[in-house]
Amino acid sequence: MPDLSVVLAGFLDALTITNFLYILLGVTLGQVIAAIPGLGTVMALAVAIPFTISLDTLTAVAFLISISKGGTVGGAVSAILLNTPGSAEAAATTFDGHPMAKKGQAGKAMKYSLYYSIFGDVGSDIVLILVAAPLAMVALKMGPIEICALMVLAFTVISGLVGDSLIKGVISVGLGFLIGAIGLDPGYGTPRFTFNSYELYDGIPLGPLALGMLAVSVIIREIAQMNRGSSGGSTLTVLQAKSQSVTLKELLANRVVAFRAFVIGTIIGAIPGLGSSTAGMISYSVTKQSAKDPEAFGTGDPRGIAASETANSAVVGANLIPLLTLGIPGNIGAALLVGAFVLHGVQPGPLLFENQGQLVYGLFGAMLMANVANLGVGQVCMRLWAKVVTAPSTVVYPCALIICTTGMYLITGSPMGVVFMVGAAFWGYLMTSFGYPFIAFIVAFILTPQLEASIVQAVRISGGDWTIVLRHPIALALLAMSGLMIFYLLPRKRKAEAAAA
Fold it and tell me: For the segment 289-333, what is each residue's pLDDT rounded down to a tens digit?
């Protein structure tokens, strides 16, 4: 465990005017961008990363996490007003949020979403602060063989849980390995797949790849839908958000629902491969099934909003547990944070607590500050976001594309960065079109260097004798869990594919 002096120094580092202003800016951007249908938190993060290169490490990561936190609040605005979630995690909020708005209680529904979202977020942050350091100490005891087995388990979980097909998930992971292997071999230093291009000796940069697949590809898809006339936003009618208050008594009436949703969201957030939208859906389903009057759900019941918003916000802090303790991103947002850490010369993982404990606890302090800012901005600006959701797509998407291109040129300082971004955008568009989960691809791409390094170390330690695994019980247990996961998920995926057909 870090010394108390390190913990206090980290929290004091977060309490600066500069950090607070960037946290406030991040929360505001997250809320307003997530409120616009078609954009979302992931796009906001991908676009913002290049502009943090000149910032201090703590300020940059705090700014990005604040965007993520703000996005969980902003996504509910359009879900309630337009029945169209601004970000995927707010999908379950539409079930009762929009019916409540149709009853003339749009303002009340948005207040419910704000308060329960903050509750879930704060709770998961506290869990992260309490468990991260002990888990990191356990992870430090793991050698290369255990790390290899852990990576296998992570990829198995991600391949099986993301998307509708286990086979497509495995293929996406394999493609991520292939692209991640471009560059110099970590064992012998020989170039691979570089085609005699010196730009590829360091591999494909994460920034252009993430920005292209997560932001530009979405913009291309939305523009294509606009051209086909299937999406433009012109047919949506905004319900005006009247000033309506929510009392403490009304909030506490759903305390059991909110606490259960917090537990569900925290557990799901800590499992790599799942995400906020999954947490919201599962929590809503569990709450409805356990209610004495399930028929009330879908008619504007506050319990539906509490179940969805608390759970999807609880993921924000919990998905940093595997990232900070093991170096494994839990979802796309965490994967983008890996890029931000690497951009500033910091490698996430168990050694982060040992080598840069003050930075980690500074980050924890910034996360708590972001929750306060999130509540304040939501209280003041919620009615303003209700007007922002009507912004025309013909203006929003071209502006976003210009920002992406400018940011990528700034971060790479070369036109090749823009070329990589455009190539990744079309690659992401094709993967999405054919149903291949790009989250599995990106996570595999990010973890490939660490997996290769662990394999090289394990081979050198064992002298090529694979039976050494039998003398490492932790590695055996992790590999056994991977096998059980395959046997558990494969039949379920086949049933899902058959039902979809």
Answer: 788 888 888 888 888 888 888 988 888 888 888 888 777 776 677
Contact 26, 67 (CB under 8 A): yes
Please state, in angstroms and rounded to a whole number, the distance separating the CA atoms of residues 182 and 171: 17
pLDDT tens, position by position, 457-497: 777 777 777 777 777 887 888 888 878 877 766 665 566 55
Contacts (Cβ under 8 Å, ≥6 apart) of 277: 88, 89, 91, 92, 312
* CA–CA separation, 238 and 79 (whole Å): 11
Beta bridge partners of 183: 192
Tokens 């009762």 sit at which residue? 96
pLDDT digits (tens, 9 = 90+) for 202-238: 788 777 787 777 677 777 777 776 655 544 443 334 4
- Taking CA atoms, 168 is separated from 10, 118, 247, 432, in Å, by 43, 36, 48, 11
Find, among 440, 446, 468, the residue nearest to 146 by Cα. Answer: 468
**Residue 390 to residue 232: CA distance in whole angstroms:** 11
Eight-state DSSP code of residue 184? E
Residue 395's SS3 state is: helix
Task: Kindly state the DSSP code that residue 213 receives in the 8-state scheme.
Answer: I
In whole angstroms, what is the distance from residue 348 CA to residue 363 CA? 13
In angstroms, rounded to a whole number, what is the distance separating the alpha carbons of residues 26 and 69?
Answer: 9
